[in-house]
């Protein structure tokens, strides 16, 4: 017996070089942003899963810069999830304002599976402390001192650090191997967080505008209007 079940999927085509560049350096922060959320990898010829661990560590560092001294696991995952929506033009009129919260709540266990091992690494370095709660998630505490903020900034992808350095300034130092390293000048945690937020917001704004235009062209006029109308209806209901 043939099943009448069907499901619609959105898909895209990308060069593997562009995928790797975005995962490692947050070049556009489009693909890397998607891979900071739970996804199902069907075929992995380049060991993207391993490369993506670098992307996930960057996402944790960015989220920690934006979070207070104490927060829940859910707040952490929501902040990570929200990174790729900051500056997204579609969030202004065509997205559910509770989208990030819903994504995390529905896939909380998957977020835990993705990030728990990396969070334990941060804990081993003394950057995070965990305490149990009544539910299935932990309460997380972090040191908000300047030295930790500098450490978090140094863990961000090179492209982001470079753009932050253009705003905040850079200094150079020699590594143990004799290489010249450039460091972002971090005068305060708040200043670094705001600068990083601006860098990511601009990246997301550009990539979201590009994707919106290319998506409308790809699906055609009638389908584009129908799709946009559905999105705007959901967005409107989330605000009422």
TrEMBL record:
EC identifiers of the protein: 2.7.7.41
Single GO biological process annotation from the record: CDP-diacylglycerol biosynthetic process
Pathway: Phospholipid metabolism; CDP-diacylglycerol biosynthesis; CDP-diacylglycerol from sn-glycerol 3-phosphate: step 3/3; Lipid metabolism
Superkingdom of the organism of origin: Eukaryota
GO terms for MF: phosphatidate cytidylyltransferase activity
Topology term for the membrane: Peripheral membrane protein
Compartment annotation: Mitochondrion inner membrane
Family to which this protein belongs: Belongs to the TAM41 family.
TM region positions: none
Cofactor: Mg(2+)
Protein name: Phosphatidate cytidylyltransferase, mitochondrial
Main subcellular location: mitochondrion
Listed GO CC annotations: mitochondrial inner membrane
Sorted UniProt keywords: Lipid biosynthesis, Lipid metabolism, Magnesium, Membrane, Mitochondrion, Mitochondrion inner membrane, Nucleotidyltransferase, Phospholipid biosynthesis, Phospholipid metabolism, Transferase
InterPro entries per record: Tam41
Species in which this protein is naturally found: Vitis rotundifolia (Muscadine grape)
